[in-house]
Design a protein that fits this description.
Blueprint lengths: L19 H10 L14 E9 L2 E10 L3 H5 L21 H9 L1 H11 L4 E9 L2 H21 L5 H4 L6 H9 L3 H10 L4 H11 L4 H11 L7 H13 L3 H8 L6 E5 L5 H14 L8 E5 L2 H15 L1 H6 L1 E4 H11 L11 E3 L1 H13 L2 H6 L7 H13 L4 H11 L10 H7 L1 H19 L2 E3 H14 L9 E4 L7 H11 L5 E5 L15 H8 L4 E5 L1 E2 L4 H11 L11 E2 L15 H18 L9 E5 L5 H11 L3 E3 L9 H14 L4 H7 L9 H14 L3 H10 L14 H15 L4 H12 L1 H8 L3 H20 L8 H4 L5 H8 L10 H11 L7 H11 L6 H5 L3 E5 L10 E3 L16 H4 L1
Parallel strand pairs: 4-10, 4-11, 5-6, 5-9, 7-8, 9-10, 12-13, 14-16, 14-17, 15-16
Antiparallel strand pairs: 1-2, 1-3
Helix pairs in contact: 1-5, 5-7, 8-10, 9-10, 10-38, 11-13, 12-13, 13-14, 16-23, 17-19, 17-22, 20-21, 20-22, 21-22, 23-24, 27-28, 29-30, 29-33, 29-40, 31-32, 33-34, 34-36, 35-36
The protein binds a DNA duplex through helix 16, helix 23 and helix 31.
DNA sequence: CATTGAAGTCTTTTT
DNA sequence: GACTTCAATG
């Protein structure tokens, strides 16, 4: 029945629907629906027809619960709405409908929601009888399946939100032509349950049926290259000119995609990767895709999985710069003179180390009345120096140059000590910090990159696998990261980068926009493509943001267009204090949810903060109002005290030299070993040339004399715990089991109960950590395909497949893959424990998974929210000293 | 004498 | 919530 639909059917104009028949017809012929919302058993229908580029199309349909209460209660705002939900179905009268249409907030809500993407929305309301409602459901189902087969097949948000009545689906399928069925089969992995059911129901004994089954049973989602080609074409057809140009750009010509916000950056990047694999037959394992945050990496993985299947995605070398470096450094540790079991030292541990070193200069600082930064400040200064490639000795000259005025004859440490004591201490602390890291066999975040550069720079073969490098958010790369990219790309010099100079918000992390130019210098044939079409925001939001950033005079002028209407104007509200502000945020969100009649739910709201500490008042307000929320990037899971406790023990098991872990665990639970004793141990260990851990073990064994306040008896349980765990770890016990054993050995639960009021939530976090540990094992990077996945399912369907001589495509890169794992994997360097620890140290946003599905308002820092989008966004505390922040040295960035 | 507990201060942004 | 300082306890 769909065959005879003219393709330009959408030229037919549907402005509003006064009766059900015309609406129903319209739904069935409309091909380009943007969104289909969940249908509930309801009586009032909102139909919206939208005009896109001169073509009027029905775009969104939704049933809302009856409006009886709305009609009876004339009051506006919050009070009238919550009652809607529980009112039984009820046909509305003309008068009520009139009221509804007049209900400006509701319609406004609709229009602003839709006009984010489409201009000229018109809204009208229709009433449905029960029978009509059922027919409508049917129409929607057909419509959805049609969309699923022939529309935007990769849209993930449609999947969960659509009614899938199996009878209706079959009715739909029966009407399809053979060709359409084939295409359906090629995408049917998105509807696994349906397909299994269909094959059983129809007893399909033909080519199509097998393909459906093959798609379900074979590990690679798309059974034939013909279908891959079709899919790629459909993908390309949804891109605009510059986007498509970017995707199809020849792989061997370096490419810079300069993309404004909301211009489909990630879509282009993922499509390009798919294109490289599907059209240029570049093996996934030879593609390196780098992002800056784990969130971006995960997002990309998710989207790519929909395009090319899980198998191929697993083979991509994909992740943050840090994660990639860590991985290759473990593999090739020996090449650069590292030990494979190095520990990754996070910011908190770095800070503690620096604090400890700083104490040795305490007397000097006091005696000379030197103004000195706190250790956090120093850590970030050290980090800056490291990213710029300055070693402690280099800092001497640099700090002396910073001193204005007279020329300095001898640029050496002694002069620095005289002229800039604070600078001198900094250099000494920096030196000592580096020494400690080496001595304790650990790398901080910057070291991962620095040593990565050493590895790939000196040992070309370590990067020889790489055929193409793609970098997301390129404007945020710093010098080290840029070098890293260059070295990895060295073998084939195929590079694609995506970036936006206007969105550089990591200047404080030494991000260098100059890298865009550097790349043109180092890769002379580099081409640029600009993406200037914004698909995210309304015109008035763009105008506002342009107004803000164009206050920056040195900015390179760059345009951004949108096809959207101006939409509602952004609102600015002033409050006397933060309490009122927080209160307003809570009630305003409630009002908007109510006023839009459930079109917006909590997931559609975000509150963006300059820094996470601002969330206190707001969290309190949301709790008061009973609004569920989640905190992005707040106190991160892996930075929680109880999680760090457990991780520290495990780190020490894996790397006994790692000092921060030793200091954390030796008196945990309290064993009456205080600061002084620990300091003594460390000092004596240094004298003896042992790690503190080794020394403690020897004291325990009676091999060396005890220290002043006797330690031997106190450390008994500590030493046995570590020895037990070490033994178990070496025999390959899973991290999850190790944690359980550890909890038991140190009676951690008892300790928590004693030391913290909220021990129950803390215990839950540990359970969550155990969960994470068990998951991590399954999704370990580069895990070779399991036996089960390699062998096609041996049931009757698969056997039939082969009998009929049907070809199931063999993955091109599987062989290459197994070779590379054999060659690279120094089995010793990748114990399950080590993998787990690395994942823990390098992941930030492994928020509990079920959290994501729940309906919650998002609270996030602006930085963490980069690249995400919500229909409604609030930005509290936009006031001087907060936003722009008082300590920011780059106002353009704050803009 | 070393350790622990209580009270008080300060909190950018990320891997 | 993490760190520091000061007084009280083992």
């Amino acid at each position: 029945m769909y065959n005879d639909l003219p393709l330009d059917i959408t030229d037919r104009i549907f402005t509003s629907f006064t009766d059900f028949e015309s609406l129903w017809t319209a739904i069935r012929v409309s091909k380009h629906s943007y969104s289909v919302f969940k249908l509930r058993s309801t009586s009032i229908l909102y139909a919206v027809s939208v005009n896109i580029a001169g073509r009027n199309v029905i775009h969104v349909l939704r049933l809302v619960r009856t409006a009886t209460n709305l009609a009876s209660s004339d009051s506006e705002g919050v009070d009238a709405i919550p009652a809607w939900k529980d009112v039984p179905r009820y046909p509305v009268t003309t008068e009520q409908r009139r009221l509804l249409i007049k209900y400006a907030d509701v319609l406004q809500g609709w229009e602003s929601f839709l006009s984010r993407r489409h201009k000229d929305c018109t809204v009208s309301a229709v009433t449905l009888t029960d029978a009509e409602s059922d027919r409508f459901q049917q129409a929607m189902c057909e419509f959805w399946m049609y969309q699923q087969c022939f529309g935007e097949i990769w849209r993930e948000d449609i999947l969960d939100d659509t009614p899938m009545d199996i009878e209706l689906q079959i009715m739909f399928l029966k009407r399809l032509s053979t060709e359409e069925l084939q295409r359906f089969a090629s995408v049917c992995l998105f509807m696994k349950d349906t397909c299994i059911w269909l094959c059983r129901a129809f007893g399909w004994n033909n080519d199509i049926g097998y393909r459906v089954v093959a798609a379900l049973t074979h590990p690679t989602p798309y059974p034939t290259s013909v279908h891959l080609s079709v899919i790629m074409d459909e993908l390309l057809s949804t891109l605009n000119g510059p986007q498509r140009k970017s995707v199809e750009h020849p792989p061997n010509v370096p490419l810079q995609i300069l993309a404004g916000p909301g211009s489909g950056k990630t879509k282009v990047l993922t499509t390009r990767i798919a294109y490289l694999i599907l059209r240029h037959a570049i093996a996934p394992s030879t593609i390196c895709a780098v992002t800056f945050t784990n969130k971006a990496a995960n997002e990309m993985k998710l989207r790519l999985t929909k395009l090319i299947g899980k198998e191929k995605v697993m083979r991509l070398k994909m992740g943050t710069f840090h994660a990639l470096c860590a991985r290759f450094l473990r593999q090739h540790a020996a090449l650069v003179g590292l030990e494979g079991n190095f520990t990754i030292c996070d910011a908190e541990e770095s800070k503690k180390l620096v604090g400890k070193i700083l104490k040795t200069y305490k007397d000097y600082i006091i005696a000379h009345k030197i103004m000195f930064d706190d250790s956090k400040e120093i850590v970030s200064k050290i980090s800056k120096a490291k990213t710029k490639g300055y070693e402690p000795d280099d800092m001497v000259a640099i700090l002396l140059d910073d001193l204005k005025g007279k020329t300095i004859p001898h640029k050496n440490l002694a002069t620095l000590k005289d002229l800039d004591p604070a600078g001198w201490i900094f250099v000494e602390v920096y030196r000592e910090y580096e020494r400690t890291l080496r001595a304790t066999n650990s790398l901080d975040f910057d070291d991962l990159l620095i040593w990565g550069v050493k590895l790939f720079g000196k040992h070309k073969q370590a990067a020889a696998w790489c055929k193409h490098v793609l970098v997301d958010e390129f404007q945020d790369t710093n010098t080290v990261q840029y070098d890293l990219m260059r070295y990895i790309a060295d073998a084939n010099r195929c590079v694609t980068i995506v970036g936006d100079p206007d969105q550089s918000i990591y200047g404080w992390r030494s991000a260098d926009i100059g890298n865009l130019k550097n790349m043109q210098r180092d890769f002379p044939s580099t081409k640029q493509i600009f993406l200037e079409q914004n698909y995210r925001s309304t015109a008035s939001i763009l105008a506002l943001s342009l107004g803000i950033i164009s206050g920056d005079n040195v900015r390179i002028k760059k345009t951004l267009h949108t096809a959207h209407p101006s939409g509602p104007r952004p609102m600015m509200h002033r409050f006397l204090d933060e309490k009122m502000e927080a209160q307003f945020i809570g009630t305003e969100m409630k009002r908007v949810v109510a006023a839009t009649g459930g079109i917006l739910d909590w997931n559609d709201f975000a509150i963006l903060l300059r820094f996470s500490a601002l969330s206190r008042e707001i969290e309190a307000s949301l709790q008061r109002e009973g609004i569920p929320y989640r905190m992005l990037g707040g106190h991160k899971f892996f930075e929680r005290l109880e999680v760090k406790d457990i991780l520290a023990y495990l780190q020490l098991v894996d790397n006994p030299q790692f000092l921060p872990a030793f200091m954390r665990t030796i008196n945990l639970p309290p064993r009456n070993i205080g600061e002084k004793s620990i300091a003594q141990v460390i000092q004596r260990a240094e004298q003896a040339g042992l790690s503190p851990m080794a020394l403690v073990e020897r004291i325990h064994d009676g091999k060396v004399p005890d220290i002043k306040p006797p330690l031997k008896r106190k450390v008994g349980p500590f030493v046995t715990t570590l020895r037990t765990l070490r033994e178990q770890a070496n025999s390959g016990t899973s991290p999850a089991m190790l944690i359980r054993k550890l909890l038991e050995l140190i009676k951690y639960t008892d300790h928590l109960k004693k030391s913290h009021e909220d021990w129950e939530t803390r215990l839950e976090n540990i359970v969550e950590l155990i969960n994470f540990a068990s998951q991590e094992k399954e999704t370990a990077l580069d895990a070779p395909p399991t036996e089960a996945a390699k062998v096609p399912v041996r049931d009757h369907r698969a056997t039939q497949l082969e009998d009929e001589g049907l070809v199931i495509i063999e993955d091109d890169s599987r062989n290459a893959m197994s070779q590379s794992t054999d060659a690279d994997d120094n089995a010793d360097n990748e114990t399950p424990l080590r993998q787990f620890l690395q994942a823990s140290m390098l992941s930030t946003d492994s928020q509990t998974k079920d959290d994501d599905n729940k309906d919650k308002v998002t609270i996030s820092t602006c930085h963490a929210a980069k690249g995400l989008e919500w229909p409604v966004v609030m930005v509290p505390a936009v006031e001087n000293k907060v936003f722009p922040h008082k300590r920011s040295d780059d106002h353009a960035e704050e803009r």
